[in-house]
Design the sequence.
């Protein structure tokens, strides 16, 4: 019985470590897709996002799950698929953060910042 509280504590400590990288990845993806929409002449390099998910040790299929969740939230459910509540919350937070950054910096400055911040994930359209 003495091990139960220790095990519970270890589980609590381990949980945020998993959530952190995914929320960072969700934010990165949302910003890449926002740049595609908001910044003229910008496109997303989807395969590089998949590779980044692998580097961040995200489960297989994470990129597609996040893409669908972003589409679902930003089209009012007309496109994409609703994800689990945790992922939908991460998309909502990333959306709010990105919106605030765009308003604070102005869209032109935000776009310029994203070009260097997301180099490799976004590129100029051909």
Sequence:
């Amino acid at each position: 019985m003495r091990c139960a509280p220790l095990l519970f504590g270890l589980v609590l400590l381990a949980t945020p470590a998993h959530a952190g990288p995914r929320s960072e990845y969700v934010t990165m993806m949302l910003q890449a897709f926002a740049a595609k929409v908001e910044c003229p002449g910008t496109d997303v390099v989807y395969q590089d996002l998949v590779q980044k998910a692998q580097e961040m040790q995200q489960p297989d299929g994470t990129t597609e799950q996040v893409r669908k969740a972003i589409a679902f939230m930003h089209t009012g459910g007309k496109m994409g698929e609703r994800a689990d509540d945790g992922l939908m919350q991460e998309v909502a937070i990333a959306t709010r953060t990105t919106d605030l950054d765009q308003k604070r910096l102005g869209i032109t400055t935000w776009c310029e910042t994203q070009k260097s911040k997301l180099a490799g994930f976004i590129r100029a359209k051909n």
